[in-house]
Amino acid sequence: MKWKQSKYWIMGTGFLTAAACFFDFLYAGQEEKNSAGVVVVQEDSCFTLRQNGKNILRYVHAIKDVPPGVNPLFRRSGFIHPLWSPAGKVLTRIQPPDHYHHYGLWGPWTLTHIEGREVDFWNLNKGEGTVRFAGLKSAFSGEEEGGFCVRQEHVDFTADKSGRVSIEELLEVRARPAQVEGRLAWFIDWNSRQKNILECPIVLEAYRYGGGLGFRATEQWTKENCTVLTSEGKTRREADGTRARWCDVNGGFEDGQRAGIVFLSHPTNYSHPEPMRVWPPDANNGRGDLFFEFCPIRLERLILEPQKEYVFRYRMVVYDGTLQPETAEELWKSYASSIQEN
After folding, report:
1. pTM reported for the whole predicted model
2. Mean pLDDT throughout 84-106?
């Protein structure tokens, strides 16, 4: 099999300086189309995972600019958008006018204290912090699965206006196709290893947003066509602030089709079964938009000790149509019993 080697220069602005990486993971174009495996495709500003000609997800490593007239503090890199269903439905949304800091799939901390200072890595318009892409560690394409591991930096602007890195993160994203209820689905693993590189503790205060894995759904999902069901039987109206092992979010589209994601929390995660932030049907000024997050610090704070690493593991099962609760439970049991690397 032929491989194409490509040299890619990442030209960052604002936060990033020029960096260079060599990739050896690109299939020749025709071979990618015909491959049943998962391949990593290099593009100008992102890495895209594809399987048999179908897009799975796109990780954006370049800084995403904001619409004209919007506060430039909302610019950032290091997030997943779009996330596609196997049928090609776009499930994520970025920079919605009601929350310009929402970026598809992402997970910065919110109410944080460092050396007595409050630092918010989530609400970018405060100018206190951000999370940014800092380089590619590895990537691979394969017949069974493909993925990549990137370095991300959690940057504190309250300590230094130019930005001081407080947390170094290795984010590994792996994807593979599978059959679920007789249909093609994507299994996507999100493994985040975060290390406090300071000489002082980082206090993640209990708050309704922050960390874990956040998801802002497509604007086509509304209170009229979007459902939520948790492992504990909670619906969209009841789920916010409760704990769950898994949460199934599902929504409709203008053409009448449906798609969804089962979010699975690994039992080794902090505060598992994890509390969640789920916008109820009347949230966001009654528009009924959907936001979901596994939020490990929702009910209790977490202290990141100096030079210590913390791991947060999740799986997303992305499917078309609808899914039975019994299937979601079996998916979680399989994930929970899987061997995880330390």
Report:
1. 0.90
2. 98
